[in-house]
From TrEMBL:
This is Alkaline shock family protein YloU. Pfam families: Asp23. Belongs to the asp23 family. InterPro entries: Asp23. It comes from the Bacteria.
């Protein structure tokens, strides 16, 4: 975000928006973690920037486009968890920064079964 405010320029870095988005996502019930990928690790090494695990933010013309990679808990409706995460991220980013959030994409990369009740079927984490 770049905005002229009479006394000077206000600029909010993509990384700041990513931190806000990560916190909002992790505060969502049913989200148990964020998932970073190989490309994220390479980007961090090459750019030297602080990369928020599981969050990618692009700001264009004072509009934010946010991609999340998450792990959800077993036994809950995944679509409901993701919709709630989208609402939380949009609300928190817009309220804290004034930047309009255009898109919050959520990719579920794993299901955490560590809290699942014991059953006759052995459960293992599912990774895509």
């Amino acid at each position: 975000m770049n905005e002229w405010k009479g006394h000077g320029m206000i600029r909010i870095a993509d990384e700041v928006v990513a931190v806000i988005a990560r916190i909002a996502t992790l505060e969502t019930e049913g989200i148990v973690g964020m998932s970073g990928g190989i490309a994220e690790g390479i980007a961090k090494r090459v750019s030297g920037k602080s990369v928020q695990k599981g969050v990618q933010v692009t700001i264009d013309e004072d509009r934010a486009y946010i991609d999340l990679r998450v792990s959800v808990s077993f036994g809950q409706r995944i679509d409901r968890i993701c919709k709630e995460a989208q609402r939380n991220v949009k609300d928190m980013v817009e309220n804290m920064t004034g930047i309009e959030v255009q898109v919050v994409n959520v990719r579920v990369e794993s299901v955490d079964v560590s809290q699942a009740k014991q059953s006759s079927v052995k459960l293992e984490a599912v990774y895509l």
